[in-house]
């Protein structure tokens, strides 16, 4: 944020979010033990990110995922997806890439 004056030079317009999304917790039926409550600092960071103007126009799916996380009040790490099977991650990421399930 301190270098906002150079934003046009520093941005990466082709970046994609690959990995777990807050909406994946329901999709993959994560056990409650894998979910972590958001801390006050987590909430503050997410709310700060949501105020950035580019999230309104350029990346509405990112915005939606952050809103889901705030609404549910929980987060999880990608390792949580291996709760049901240790080999799950070795198929999850390639499948997301192949199917274009990234934002």
Structural descriptors:
103 residues; mainly alpha; 6 helices; 2 strands; 4% strand; globular
What is the global morphology?
globular
- What is the rounded distance between the termini? 23 Å
Tally of extended strands?
A: 2
Low-confidence stretches: none
Strand content: under 5%
The whole-angstrom Rg is 15 Å
Largest sheet: 2 strands, antiparallel
Average predicted local confidence, pLDDT:
82
Strand order, biggest sheet?
Answer: 1-2
The level of helicity is 40-55%
Q: What order do the SSEs take from the amino end to the carboxyl end, as H and E? A: HHEHHHEH
Q: Helix/strand-derived class?
A: mainly alpha
Give the helix tally: 6
Write structural notes for this entry.
This protein is mainly alpha-helical and 103 residues long. It has a domain at 32-103. Helix content is 47%, strand content 4%. The protein is built from six helices and two strands, in the order H-H-E-H-H-H-E-H. The protein has a two-stranded antiparallel ribbon. Helix 3 (40-50) packs antiparallel against helix 5. The relative contact order is 0.19. The mean pLDDT is 82. Its EC number is 5.6.2.2. This is Spo11/DNA topoisomerase VI subunit A protein. Keywords: Isomerase.
